[in-house]
Each structure stands twice: as structure tokens, then as C-alpha cells.
Amino acid sequence: MPTVKPNKTSEIVGKIFKNQELAFGLKEFTDVNLEDVLYISEQEPHRFYVKDLKSGISRFVYDENKLVGKPEEIVRQLWLHKLNFHYGYSFDRIDTEKSIHFGREIHAKAADIIVYKKDKITPYIIVEVKNPNEKKAIDQLKSYLNSEGCEIGVWSNGIEKIILYRPYPREFEDSLSDLPGVGQTIDDLFEIKRTWKELNPKFDFVEIIKHIEEFALAGSGANVFEEIFKIIYAKLYDEKLARERRENQEVIFRKYRDPEKSYEVINQLFKNAVREWRDTFETSDRIKLSPDRLNICIPFLEKFRLFETGLGELEIIDSAFEYLITEVSKGTKGQYFTPRHVIKMCVRMLNPKDNEYVIDPACGSGGFLLHAMYHVWERFLNTNAAKKDYASKYLFGIDFDDNMRRISQALMLIAGDGKHQIFKRDSLDARDWQRPESADAKVGLKHLLTQFENPSDQKDNQLTYRHLNFDILMTNPPFAGENPEQGLLRQYLLAKKDGKLKNNVERHILFIERSLDAIKPGGRLAIVLPQGVLNNTNMHTIREWLFEKARILAVVGLHGNTFKPHTGTKTSVIFLQKWNENEEPLKDYPIFMAVSKKSGKDNSGDYVYKKDEKGNYKHAPRGRKILDHDLDKIAEAFINFAKEQSFSFWR
């Protein structure tokens, strides 16, 4: 049979799996070329086969005419190759489609792959393969292990794998980070020493988070978000210490044979991380998982490198945190995840430079800061040292919500070489900036405040949010809720009407004033607001106040699906540039106006991706599907407008 040409292989694999994204490689098998195992029938060129590595016979995988196939067969052959080539098991110790009987059950089920011990009789490893689009069937794998008295089981769909370990006849004890190769024992897989450079910077963080949730935290009674972040912080601290201080850069974040030792090591790493990166957790915090549950979590992370990941890997980590945010989001309080294509539009339009300070006073997961960093890295900075310096010095975030703030802190720690400028504060209440602090938090806040203070504006040596002097502010403040607290409202001009203090004011209105306070004259701002601020007649005083304080550069109306499933509130992004000191506000000038017709989401809030004329997903150069939205076009149109208007930041 003739082999399939390489340029045809990706297309066929995408069709077989009904997912063109998989054409860019099954993550479990980076050392195998699919064209080496994929064949075309000479008699029927529309039918595709793979050569079975165990038996040598051809197995059907796809029929182009009938659009049917067996995608799991490709995964099986790739696993046969890996077991033989990577782990060293000879094919005379491997069986495929081995019948497994369950008690008196008449119809036997077949295990996809069985690896035997040296006697070639006793089952050692069972591999259950699935279509890459199928969900896990761990219970089926466990039943196979029980029936055969087998120690190790692998579930794999080619993209991800789960390795179960059962020291028969005891119950399932653990997960394993890898399979034992020929000549290795189970004990050899424990306490494998690695250096920081040996850690893999390529990983699927979303799947790692899901596995930790499913296998270690489900039913534990633990706060999933809290415990996952404690483990991540322990991992980050271990990498930082290994890279900077330890001899041979050895990492100690790994699974130990004794769960108690694993807990002792990982929990101490976490406590050290709390001391290293202040204002994140309480100094009294500890990992609350049991040693046994923690020992299940560790293998999912121990082989991967979080520090010094590339731009693409940071985006993957960001998407994993989006998944976590969705799990813990509090839409009823106006807090929800800002879609990254909205953020990218804002960043492109405001065009931050490498010497400009950026702040988000409601930073949440840090999306605006992260993508401002991407923008500057790609356009202005060429060396890793310059990139790390920018990430750790020029990006600032404030948020009062612990869960959201920890995400942004973790992202900036990873990007900023172990440093971040993310602080826990109520951005709306200047009094919160003067409350007693632990010494560590005070140091960070003092740096934030004194670096941007305007001495002529100080009173009684009390630094507040009003003394900040940033170049750029981008934010999506919480909409829901009002502020009736009079001590807070007294701080705002927009909380007064005819010289009298209002009884309550919506939070996003206060954020408008607070955000303009934070940028210097000539500074620019992007803020997501409910459309009513721009349209409702009772908001005319807000609009008049804005005209006096800043030039309105642009208004972009977002589609109603943009923030679903969290909220269906109609929103707009308003772009402003603060008038310079002694600059007379213009009375009449052009404003860029646009309305998004494609949100990148459907009515349920699920992401929608572009397809070609054949119905296949389109892909970016890195292999990721392309979101179907029009915000990039809007950003391009604004950039042309900005250049025509000779805006200073686009000259």
C-alpha cells in the first residue's frame, strides 16, 4: 500500500478525528511521523489504513466517501510504537485486543493493549485507548485492572493520559507520572531527581488543572481554587530556588514514596513561597489536603517548567486560569472573566510603549497587564533581560478579590522573573490605602505610591490613590452593586448632585472618576462600561464631566454575547486621553465609533471559531483555532483613524 504524502496526512488525520486542530500533532507522540503508519488502499484510494505494529496486518481507519472511521486505531498504533521504542518492551511481551472475562460474564471484553511481565504470562500494564474527542472512562480501566490482577493501567486519547497504579490486591493507591520502562520497577518512578533545565516547558495546563480536580480534589471537601493555587505557588518557589541558588539546579517538587514526606516537602515550599511573595496568602496558611491526596496531585505538575515559559506557553497558562475563573466566578457581584480578544483590542488601540507604566485598578486575572506585556515584548524588546525587567517594573494591578488577584499574581510571577506588582486593595476607597499593613505589603505599596506621587498634591503627608501618575490604565470594573457608604462617596465629585451627596452611586460610575485620577495628564485609558452610561438621559452629567476631563478617543459597542455566560449586559469600551495641564478642552472633534457584530461567542457563551469552505476549522501558525470575531478589524480601523488624527501615541 502507498503511504500518504506528508501534506495530505494532516488533512486526513483532522478528518479521522473530526477535529482539524489535531492535525498539528497528538501531544503524546511527538517523536512519531503519522505518515510512517498511514496507508492508502491501492484498490480503493478513498480508504485509509494503518499497519498494525504487533501483527503486521493492515487496520482500517477512515473512508473518505462514507466519512466513517476508527480514530482510536491510530492512537493504539502510536502507543504500540511508544511502548516498544520509548519504553523498550518487545512485541512478544505485548498483546492487542486481549479478551478479559468478568466473572461468569458470557461476552468477553477486549483490552486494547496488554504488556506482560518477563514471564510473558502475567499482565503488567493495560492500555485503554480512545478517540481524542472522547471523555475519560477511568472506571472501565479500573475494571480491567481488577479482573486481570494488573498493577498499572493507562487511559489515553492521544492528547492526554492518566496512569493508575494498584499494588494488587490493595485498592488503587495513586497516579503515576510515567510508566516504568524495561528494567525499571515501580519504586524507580518515585523520587526521580530532576534539574530545572530538565523540566519540560511545553504542557497543557488546562488538562493538568482538570486532572488535579478530578483525581485528587473531588470529594475532598477542600476549596479547589485555594488548594490548587497553594500547590502552584509551591511549584513556582521550588523552580525559582533551583534555578537561582541550588547546586546543579535540582528541583525538590516531586512525588516521594512516603506521602508524609511529600506533604512535608511541598507544604514547606508553599510556606517559603508565602514569605517570599508577600500579600498573597496569610503567613499562617498551609496546604490543607491530606498527604495521600497531595501525593496524587504532584505527578501532574512535577515534570513541567512554569518559570521562563515562552509567549505561547503563557497564553496556555492564561487559558487554564480562565477555566479556573469560570469555576469560581461571581457574576452576581459583577465579577467575571474579560475575554482575551476584547483585551487585545484595547491594548492594540492604546499601543503601550516599553517606557510607559500601566495599571489596572480592577485587575482580576491580570488579562490587561498580561497582554500589555505581550504587546511590548513583541514590538520593542529583544532580550530576555529587558523583557523580565519590563514585566517586573512597569505593570501594576490592584484587586480586592483574593481568587482573582492570585491568578494575576501567579501570571506576573511567571512572566516577571519571580516578581510582581499586584496588590490587594479596594481601588474605590482611599481609606483602604492607609490602613495598617504588614511590613511586607507596606514595602510594595510604598513603592507603588511614591514612585508616582505628585508632591504638590499631597496633604498631611497622606499618600492615596489620587497621587498615582500612570501613563496607561485599562480596566473592566465590576458593574453590579451600589455604594451607599457615605465615607466612601465623599471622595467623589460624581457622587454629588447640586453640591449635595447622593444616597448611593453605582460602582462603575465611581471607577470612571477613580481611573482618571490614576493617570497623568496626557495619559490614556480604556474602560469597559454598561452602554447606559453613554446612552441614558439621566447620565448626561457624567458625560459632561468626562468631556471636561478627557478627550474621548473612541467608543466601541460590544456584542451582547461578549460576556456570556456570565452576563448578557450590553457593554461598550470607551477610550479616553486625559487633557494636559493648562490645555483647553476642545469643544468639537472627531470620535472613532464602532459596533461589534461578531463577538466570538454564541448565545450560550461558548466560543465560536472560523471555518473554511469545507467546514474545517482555520488555524493560526501555532496550530490554535482562530476565534470568529471582528475586534481585530475594529482595532485596525482605529489605528488608521489615530494616525490620521496624529494622536501622539500613534505618530
Automatic annotation (TrEMBL):
Residues 316-648 form the DNA methylase adenine-specific domain. Transmembrane segments: none annotated. Pfam families: HSDR_N_2, N6_Mtase. GO terms for molecular function: DNA binding; N-methyltransferase activity. InterPro entries: DNA_methylase_A-5, HSDR_N, SAM-dependent_MTases_sf, Type-I_RE_MTase_Subunit. It comes from the Bacteria. Residues 71-180 form the Type I restriction enzyme R protein N-terminal domain. PANTHER family: TYPE I RESTRICTION ENZYME HINDI METHYLASE SUBUNIT, TYPE I RESTRICTION ENZYME HINDVIIP M PROTEIN-RELATED. This is Uncharacterized protein. It comes from Candidatus Roizmanbacteria bacterium RIFCSPHIGHO2_12_FULL_41_11.
